[in-house]
Write a structure and sequence with these properties.
111 residues; mainly alpha
């Protein structure tokens, strides 16, 4: 992977972590979300300081942890991608990753 691609991926991970933490912080302004958070701790038997540590745990996620989770939870042998766009512009690129099935707007197969 080129250095530029690695930088882009690193920025995407950093932005995702930031968005999750910011969303969580904003959710604390809503009483219903506070109750939901408390109920989650109770229901799953989480430590009482679970939500106090949440932002730290999210910001600690690194690329290796994302890869490990992906290997554990994403079944690549059965993965399907759905791509929408100009067939002439994208089909050749998509074919590099595996068989391409083309369907029309109604979902009927095309040749």
């Amino acid at each position: 992977m080129s250095r530029k691609a690695a930088d882009v991926l690193w920025d995407m991970l950093a932005n995702a972590r930031h968005a999750i933490v910011a969303s969580f912080a904003l959710s604390l302004e809503q009483p219903a979300r506070l109750l939901d958070n408390w109920m989650t701790v109770q229901y799953y038997g989480l430590p009482s300081d679970y939500w106090d540590q949440y932002a730290d745990h999210i910001t600690a996620v690194n690329a290796a942890a994302v890869q490990a989770a992906a290997r554990k939870f994403v079944d690549l042998t059965h993965m399907q991608w759905i791509c929408v766009g100009d067939r002439q512009q994208i089909q050749e690129t998509l074919a590099k990753y595996g068989p391409v099935s083309v369907v029309n707007a109604e979902g009927r197969p095309e040749k």
